From TrEMBL:
Residues 32-83 form the Nse4/EID protein Nse3/MAGE-binding domain. This is Non-structural maintenance of chromosomes element 4. Component of the SMC5-SMC6 complex. It comes from Lepidothrix coronata. InterPro entries: Nse4/EID, Nse4_C, Nse4_Nse3-bd.
Length: 282
């Protein structure tokens, strides 16, 4: 394989390239990497055995020829070894560059032969501690109060909305106590799915507190009625007799209910509309 006339190394590399396309595991990739390391070592040994014009490469001979190209006479150099400043002429590397330029189509990049210039280590910057401990303490003290205010405000808003919906339900029963109110007609807002979910949420508090109840009519459809207008002789359901269930409603079901029940207007008006009507009445 190390012989210059043998192509076994090239054939092995080509076969490895074909097998690499089928690699799908980490272990197989590791074996491929080990093979590349081995192949590169064999290629290095094979390159060292190459001969140029039946003459092996000799680093010492090459160095002698390079110095001769630079214009250095080895005999004179040996006699003047004691002189300071080295033995290379000032234009020695310039001659090498001009000769090398003949064999390169682009200018070589500039770099330092002995590394970059020596620089001093960077000066460490002093850290300046910012005085924010007091402000953080004040923020931590204020956060619980703010959260409490937000919770209280949310509870008050929910309570007011439940009372408002109860007032709407009682008003509908006062106007027409004989006509049952469909649960879907009451809570569905055809213009807003979010408002529909909020209405169902607030109505659940009325059912929980016994201020309203839901039952099925003759067609097995849910109807809602206020317990304030319960007829005399009807069953009085106490807190223990009430049952609560979890009801889900998707946006597709919401659209289907609107089409089936032909709901065109919401019975429960949005809160901001009610506020505007009260202001106009005042």
């Amino acid at each position: 394989m190390l012989s210059s006339k043998s192509n076994r190394l090239t054939e092995a590399l080509e076969e490895a390239n074909k097998l690499f396309e089928k690699v799908c595991r980490a272990r197989e990739a590791a074996l491929d990497a080990q093979f590349l390391v081995l192949a590169s070592n064999l290629g290095k040994e094979k390159a060292n055995e190459l001969h140029s014009e039946m003459t092996s490469f000799d680093a010492a001979t090459f160095a002698e020829d390079l110095l001769t190209l630079m214009g250095i006479n080895r005999i004179e150099v040996e006699e003047n070894d004691s002189e300071p400043g080295g033995f290379l002429p000032r234009d020695a590397w310039q001659k090498v560059g001009e000769e090398a330029l003949k064999y390169f189509r682009r200018a070589p990049t500039f770099h330092y032969m002995l590394g970059s210039f020596k620089s001093d280590p960077p000066v460490a910057k002093q850290r300046i501690e910012r005085q924010k401990k007091a402000s953080k303490g004040e923020a931590k003290q204020m956060m619980p109060a703010q959260l409490n205010q937000m919770e209280e405000s949310h509870d008050e808003t929910t309570e007011k909305e439940v009372e408002r919906i109860l007032g709407i339900l009682n008003t509908l029963f006062e106007n027409d106590p004989e006509t049952p109110i469909s649960f879907f007609d009451f809570v569905i807002d055809p213009n807003s799915f979010a408002r529909t979910v909020e209405n169902m949420f607030h109505v659940s508090f009325l059912i929980r507190d016994g201020l309203a109840e839901i039952r099925l009519d003759d067609d097995k459809l849910p109807i809602i009625e206020s317990t304030k207008f319960r007829r005399v002789g009807e069953e009085n359901r106490g807190p223990g007799a009430r049952k609560q269930v979890v009801m889900s409603l998707t946006q597709e079901e919401w659209k289907e209910i609107i089409e089936v029940f032909e709901i065109r207007e919401a019975m429960i008006s949005p809160p901001f509309q009610s506020t505007e009507e009260e202001m106009e009445t005042e």
